Automatic annotation (TrEMBL):
Pfam families: IPPT, zf-met. Keywords: ATP-binding, Nucleotide-binding, Transferase. The keyword Transmembrane does not apply. The lineage of its organism: Eukaryota, Metazoa, Ecdysozoa, Nematoda, Chromadorea. One of its GO terms (biological process) is regulation of multicellular organism growth. It comes from Caenorhabditis elegans. The gene is gro-1. This is C2H2-type domain-containing protein.
Amino acid sequence: MIFRKFLNFLKPYKMRTDPIIFVIGCTGTGKSDLGVAIAKKYGGEVISVDSMQFYKGLDIATNKITEEESEGIQHHMMSFLNPSESSSYNVHSFREVTLDLIKKIRARSKIPVIVGGTTYYAESVLYENNLIETNTSDDVDSKSRTSSESSSEDTEEGISNQELWDELKKIDEKSALLLHPNNRYRVQRALQIFRETGIRKSELVEKQKSDETVDLGGRLRFDNSLVIFMDATPEVLEERLDGRVDKMIKLGLKNELIEFYNEHAEYINHSKYGVMQCIGLKEFVPWLNLDPSERDTLNGDKLFKQGCDDVKLHTRQYARRQRRWYRSRLLKRSDGDRKMASTKMLDTSDKYRIISDGMDIVDQWMNGIDLFEDISTDTNPILKGSDANILLNCEICNISMTGKDNWQKHIDGKKHKHHAKQKKLAETRT
């Protein structure tokens, strides 16, 4: 086995034509390090696809790669947004800028290496026709908003989430039933699509899928695409993520947050600013809002510790969402006869093998071997889009949720069974 690898190493590479490599996956799995290793060996430049790292500042809180760690490799799409600007920057803006960057990188005879964990943004680059276009979605200027976008949000500012969802249901019931009422951004987006195009979002989605062999719209944008999805066992990953928060504190997280707050205090308590979506900032707002003299008191220490615990929790939840995306949005595209990206999951549970195992995947692919995950033996069936996104209501517990898998977990849970039992007892008494 070792001898065969040695022979493969000696064999000259048959470089693929215009290759592009995506290193995506769960947070805390070593994506940045592998991206640098790939770029160093094959002559590449890294494009970050981590929406939390788009904003200037918060280098520790968002775990940005340092100059030393980048080892001289050019990195793009990091620290370019002003945190004080409202959240007009979106996936359409990212896609347009990134596609232009890819052209420029290739013009320099370099390979684009897309690295990060914001999978929705990565998907917009990987596939064509994957997004619904509107007049405002084409605006790539992150520092300004169109009048229609601004006026729409201003008009809806005093409207509750439920009222917005009810309005969408009247216009486009199919789309509404795939969205939770509290998912305000997605509800507003579906309304915006109808107002600007005169066509329901559900109709546009059906049109996108009409000539495809799977239930997701979009065709592979670049023929020679490799997707490495990085993951680890839940136990290992959770321990690693918790340790990363402790490391951030040692690196000076407190001082960084205070400096950031002092510069942007008037914006920090408004959710309309995109930076407030960053894990590592929003959790510490109660502590930051204290008078500076109170931050080092017992109450201040308690609030800071609560912020750290919330960061750990939210990061673990984020990793689970990234994992679900891989299964529901990427692997299920393996159905059908279309040209697919080479796709491989990399288990990073053993941190000492991350680079070597990752480079083995890249070397095989660069040598002309197409790689695909075998999902035929998967014990957890991959849900089709309608099943994964359908909105379901539990009248017994008075809550709503999206996805049949979440529904099944809910009705199998102790809380639902307890409420169902209480309801049954109440009915027998009447």
